[in-house]
Design a protein that fits this description.
This protein has about 130 residues and is an alpha+beta fold. The chain has 3 helices and 6 strands; from the N terminus they run H-E-E-E-E-H-E-E-H. A 6-stranded antiparallel β-sheet has the order 1-2-3-4-6-5, covered by helices on one side.
């Protein structure tokens, strides 16, 4: 697995190593895939610092149970201008329990917890031009 000094929180990748995670740059962040599922996004940027941390791919139905495990869990405000709860939740990097909570989230992924991970929608194929050569 390639390492970049720009990838934040490398200990997260260390914990997921047995699952052979794939890392992909995404919007100035780094997404982590396990198999066909996106499980996390790691973000540590100078803009919107309140959104730095470990983003968890989940759905609204799992928020309550995950918040019991991760009291600092919050919506990713940059995804909706803070207007409502987002499906994506995050463990803020400035929370007192960030590293412990991030490791615990990794352990859930290692155990195959169904609350974490989403299969991304397929990308739309570009339409071929009806005027080739122009």
């Amino acid at each position: 697995m390639p390492r970049s000094k720009n990838i934040p929180f490398p200990f997260i990748l260390d914990y997921l190593l047995p699952l052979e995670p794939r890392i992909s740059p995404m919007f100035g962040c780094y997404s982590i895939y396990v198999g066909e599922k996106i499980v996390f996004i790691m973000r540590n940027r100078e803009t919107h610092t309140d959104c730095n941390g470990l983003w968890i791919a989940t759905s609204h139905e799992h928020h309550k149970s995950l918040k019991k495990l991760f009291p600092s869990l919050t919506s990713v405000s940059v995804l909706n201008e803070g207007s409502r709860e987002t499906a994506w939740q995050m463990i803020p990097s400035d929370s007192d329990d960030f590293e412990r909570a991030a490791i615990e989230a990794c352990e859930l992924v290692l155990k195959g917890d169904k609350r974490i991970g989403k299969i991304p929608k397929p990308k739309k194929k570009k339409k071929k031009s009806s005027n080739p050569g122009k």
